[in-house]
Amino acid sequence: MLPQTKDYWGLPEAERGKELSKLGLGNDMEVELQTLQLPVDYREVKQRVARIWEDLQPQLVVHVGVDPAAKAIFLEQCSKNRGYRDADIRGFRPECGVCLPDGPEVIASEVSMKAVSRRAAVQGVEVAFSRDAGRYVCDYAYYLSLHHGNGCAALIHVPPLSPWLPASLLGKALQVLIQEMLEEIKKARAQNQKLSLCSSSQGESTGGLLL
Questions:
Q1: What pLDDT score was predicted for residue 22?
Q2: How far, CA to CA in Å, does 53 sit from each of 103, 131, 149, 171, 188?
Q3: Alpha helix (H) ranges present in the chain?
Q4: Tens of pLDDT along 130-185?
């Protein structure tokens, strides 16, 4: 029996979480989908994201944030460490606008967002690829997840709910996107295992078992 995959979603509105929970992730019974909401609060987000990774050890974390100006769904490839100068709902700003003082300037997701955006098809919804997630709490949470999860995280920016994008259609789009992201994670891990096997066969011989 394979261990279950746990995916945690930072959903901007409870309605989105309800739609996604109702749909699930199709027939993939190896995946356990759980939804939660994160506050627009830098300090609280920092604590909660760390707890998710330390306590629950999910294989993939997907954050979903609303971009009021967006006309399409954007898949964010990477997150940046600096430039968080806008205050959160409590008026707090990270010191010097930095997420992690000793962190790298940019962390990229193990998921190829360009590949996902090309393959994912939901009638009536445009999906685009982005390398600039902005500098607010969504991107801040994304950077922390990429850091704690060694790149096994994603950020999806969605437009506000509207007549052309009701909750049911957005829920379907998120379902399709996460299915594609899980496939990308599987591919990346398979490639890493292949590279590890190749490197171990180059130098001194190693003991092992063939099962």
A1: 59
A2: 17, 24, 7, 24, 20
A3: 14-23, 42-51, 113-119, 137-148, 167-200
A4: 999 989 999 999 999 999 999 999 999 999 999 999 998 999 999 999 999 998 88
Q: Answer whether residue 199 shows pLDDT above 80.
A: no
Closest CA to 145 of 7, 16, 31: 7
DSSP state of 52: I
- Listing DSSP states for 120-136 in one string gives --BTTB-EEEES---SS
> pTM (2 decimals)?
0.81
- Annotated catalytic residues are 76, 138, 157
List Cβ neighbours of 8 (8 Å cut-off, separation of 6 or more).
34, 35, 36, 52, 56, 58, 61, 62
Q: Is 109 helix (H, G, I), strand (E, B) or coil?
A: coil
pLDDT at 20: 60
Strand partners, 158: 66
Q: What sign has the CA pseudo-torsion 135, 137, 143, 144? A: positive
Taking alpha carbons only, the member of 140, 135, 136 closest to residue 47 is 140
The structure tokens listed for 201 are 């066969």
